[in-house]
Amino acid sequence: MTASLDDRAASCGLSLSPLAANVGCRIDGIDLAAATDEQFSVLMAAFGKYGGLLMREQELAVEDLVGFSGRLGTLDHAPLTQVGRTAIEGFPEIYLITNLMDREGKPMGALGNGEAVWHTDMSYLPSPPDASMLYAREVPPTGGNTFLCSMMAAYDALPEDLKALAGRLRIKHDATYNSGGYVRQGMVEHSDPRKTTGTFHPAVIRHPETGRPALYLGRRRQSYVEGYDLDESEALLDKLWGYATLPENTYEHVWQVNDVLLWDNRITMHRRDSFDPAHTRLMWRTQIQGSGAPKAYAQA
Length: 300
Ligand code: OGA
Ligand code: MN
Hints:
Elements: H1 5-11, E1 15-18, E2 25-28, H2 37-50, E3 52-55, H3 62-70, E4 95-98, E5 110-111, E6 116-119, E7 131-138, E8 146-150, H4 151-157, H5 160-166, E9 170-174, E10 198-202, E11 204-206, E12 213-215, E13 224-225, H6 230-244, E14 250-253, E15 260-264, E16 268-272, E17 282-288
Parallel strand pairs: 2-3, 4-5
Antiparallel strand pairs: 1-2, 3-15, 4-17, 6-16, 7-15, 7-17, 8-14, 8-16, 9-10, 9-13, 11-12
The structure holds ligand 1 and manganese (II) ion.
């Protein structure tokens, strides 16, 4: 008999507390800078099960965050800042998510202080990142909360006929806009989702480690169901999105400094509230490279 995850956690000094009914789990008792192999293996099992993990009160140097992130896979390098350098000197893996401006008034990181709508990170790529994490360095007194939703629960919530239909479809994930509504570098704006740059992925994918099905939508804007007339595509997407972010399948995270929030980009989506630009919000972010193209649940 295999020990339950909670037992395994307890045997290496960890405790797991689900954050919401259907997504997210807090892990207590871990120091991400010094996690043992056994602790890391429990963390990864919890990650597959819950889709999102929260570790609080982490005292991490940049090296520690890069070191821990690197245990999950190969790290992507952040795009260069507007002034053409890495966000933190010597650490090309660190992205800044912040509303801070440099001396010339240029953004030092991504997303500003506005809302970021529900999305999966960079799913316009053929092999989107497997996971991303944020380490809170400075947070505003209110606002800027981050929400996660389970796309496994979203799939489970679909009526049987919609599950069967979605299982046969591919959806185009548009590259034009980021979640803050900004046009990505090098992209031309298009109002017709059939004509934009992007990648088709199966609408229902299989998590490579757990084997569980998840609805895979990316983001709503400029999304398109392959082979459909535009109005039919819009109607079907609206229907699927109606199940994607049901309140019972989401978790709202209110940040504290030193929180690490990690999400599996294949089985969750996330969004962020806006916040008062008079306050600073600063996150160090890492992103784990895609281990492969998302596979259809039916064929994987
Ligand atoms: C991201 C993202 C949301 C946030 O880093 O990919 O969407 O809460 N961030 O800053
Ligand atoms: Mn994101």
